[in-house]
C-alpha cells in the first residue's frame, strides 16, 4: 500500500468560496472600536462550522460591526468572528489601539500558526505583558510577522478585530501545511491475488485502520474547495485537517471505501476518468480493474465530491510516459473540457483536475486553466501550503 501526499500545481483562476465570505464586507457597515467589559468568549467560522475559538480578556479594545442579532461581528483570521453584545461597551478614557509601525495594514505572510492546546495571546511580545485572551485548541491562524525577543524566543504577530496581538512559539507552532492522501484501489486481503504488489492498491484493513486513526485523532476531512481557500488565504481551517482523494473511479471505491468513510462522517474527492464510467454496474470481479457506473457514482455523492481525472488522456505511451505530455495544447484542452461536461451530471462545479500519473507540462497547465479548472493535483510528495505554486 502506498499513499501519495500531494501538492497543488498552480492555476491562475480563482473564485472565492461563498462559504468563506466575510459578513463584515457584505454589510458595508463601518467598524467601530469598543471595549470588553468582562472576559468574553468568541466564536468564528472554521471550516464549515461556527465554533468556539477562544476568549478576549476584560478591558481589551476590538473593532466590531453591530448587527440586528445579539452579537457583534469582527475580523477573525480569514473569516468573521462573533462576540456577545453584552460583553462590550464604549472605550473608556483615552485608551486607543497602538499601531505606530503600521502593522495593522501589512499584508499577511502566507504563514499560519497552529494551536494544539488553548493558547495564550499577549498585548506585546513578552511573557510578562498583559494577556489579550486565548486562542482555542485546534486552530490555524494567519501570521503577520515574526520576531525574536532578547531571550531569542520567537513571537508570532497576529490581528484580531483590527487589533495587534502576539503568540509565543512556546505555545504554538508554525503551520507546515495540509496533507492530501491519495488512494486508487481497495481490496480485501483474501481476494487480492493480482494486485498484491501494486503500490496503488490498499487493503481494506489498512484503509479502515488509517481512517480510524484520523477519526481518533480528531481530524476533519476537507473538500478541494476548502483546500483551494486555504491555498489562497481565504478560509479558516482547523489544525487537524486532511484531504482524502481517490483517483480513477474504480468500483472498489464504492464497495469498500465509501461505507468506511461514511461510517466516520468523512468526505473525500473522487477524480474520475470520465470516458470509463459504465452505463450499468458490473458484477464484482476483484481480479480485474472495474470502473463505477453512473448509478454507483450517484450513490456515493453524499461522501464523495466528483472531479476530473481527464477523459481519454489516462494512458501511457510506448516508453511508459503519460500520453498527456506528448499531446498538443488543443488536444489537451479539448479533453479537459470534454471531461468537465461529461461529469456535470454528477457535479455542476467540476473545478479540479488530477493529472494522470502525476504528469504535466506548461501546455497542460495552460489548457487546464483555459478549460476552467481552478487547481490541479499531481503526485509530488509534500504538503499543501498557502501561496504554493
UniProtKB/TrEMBL annotation:
Residues 1-21 form the signal peptide. One of its GO terms (biological process) is carbohydrate metabolic process. Keywords: Signal. One of its GO terms (molecular function) is hydrolase activity, acting on carbon-nitrogen (but not peptide) bonds. The keyword Transferase does not apply. Coiled coil: none annotated. Residues 240-389 form the NodB homology domain. It comes from the Bacteria. PANTHER family: PTHR34216, XYLANASE_CHITIN DEACETYLASE. This is NodB homology domain-containing protein. The lineage of its organism: Bacteria, Pseudomonadati, Pseudomonadota, Gammaproteobacteria, Enterobacterales.
Amino acid at each position: 500500500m502506498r499513499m501519495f501526499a500531494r501538492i497543488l500545481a498552480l492555476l491562475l483562476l480563482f473564485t472565492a468560496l461563498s462559504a468563506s465570505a466575510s459578513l463584515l464586507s457584505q454589510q458595508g457597515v463601518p467598524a467601530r472600536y469598543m471595549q470588553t467589559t468582562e472576559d468574553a468568549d468568541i466564536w468564528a467560522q472554521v471550516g464549515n462550522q461556527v465554533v468556539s475559538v477562544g476568549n478576549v480578556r476584560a478591558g481589551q479594545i476590538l473593532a466590531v460591526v453591530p448587527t440586528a442579532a445579539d452579537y457583534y461581528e469582527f475580523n477573525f483570521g480569514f473569516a468573521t468572528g462573533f462576540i456577545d453584545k453584552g460583553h462590550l461597551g464604549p472605550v473608556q478614557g483615552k485608551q486607543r489601539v497602538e499601531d505606530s509601525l503600521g502593522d495593522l495594514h501589512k499584508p499577511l505572510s502566507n504563514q499560519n500558526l497552529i494551536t494544539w492546546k488553548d493558547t495564550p495571546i499577549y498585548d506585546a511580545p513578552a511573557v510578562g505583558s498583559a494577556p489579550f485572551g486565548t486562542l482555542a485548541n485546534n486552530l490555524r491562524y494567519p501570521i503577520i510577522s515574526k520576531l525574536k525577543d532578547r531571550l531569542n524566543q520567537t513571537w508570532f504577530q497576529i490581528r484580531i478585530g483590527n487589533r495587534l496581538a502576539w503568540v509565543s512559539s512556546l505555545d504554538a507552532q508554525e503551520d507546515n501545511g495540509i496533507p492530501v492522501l491519495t488512494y486508487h484501489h481497495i481490496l480485501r486481503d483474501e481476494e487480492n491475488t493480482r494486485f498484491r504488489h501494486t503500490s496503488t492498491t490498499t487493503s481494506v484493513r489498512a484503509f479502515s485502520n488509517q481512517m480510524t486513526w484520523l477519526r481518533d485523532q480528531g481530524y476533519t476531512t476537507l473538500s478541494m474547495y476548502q483546500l483551494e481557500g486555504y491555498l489562497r488565504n481565504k478560509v479558516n481551517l482547523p489544525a487537524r485537517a486532511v484531504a482524502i482523494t481517490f483517483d480513477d473511479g474504480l468500483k472498489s471505491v464504492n464497495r469498500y471505501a465509501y461505507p468506511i468513510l461514511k461510517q466516520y462522517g468523512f468526505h473525500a474527492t473522487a477524480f474520475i476518468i470520465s470516458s470509463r464510467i459504465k452505463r450499468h454496474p458490473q458484477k464484482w470481479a476483484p481480479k480485474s480493474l472495474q470502473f463505477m457506473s453512473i448509478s454507483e457514482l450517484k450513490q456515493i455523492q453524499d461522501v464523495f465530491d466528483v472531479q476530473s481525472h481527464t477523459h481519454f488522456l489516462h494512458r501511457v505511451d510506448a516508453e511508459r510516459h503519460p500520453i498527456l505530455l506528448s499531446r498538443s495544447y488543443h488536444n489537451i484542452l479539448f479533453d479537459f473540457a470534454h471531461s468537465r461536461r461529461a461529469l456535470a451530471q454528477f457535479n455542476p462545479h467540476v473545478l479540479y483536475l488530477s493529472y494522470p500519473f502525476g504528469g504535466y507540462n506548461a501546455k497542460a497547465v495552460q489548457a487546464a486553466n483555459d478549460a476552467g479548472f481552478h487547481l490541479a493535483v499531481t503526485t509530488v510528495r509534500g504538503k499543501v501550503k498557502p501561496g504554493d505554486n
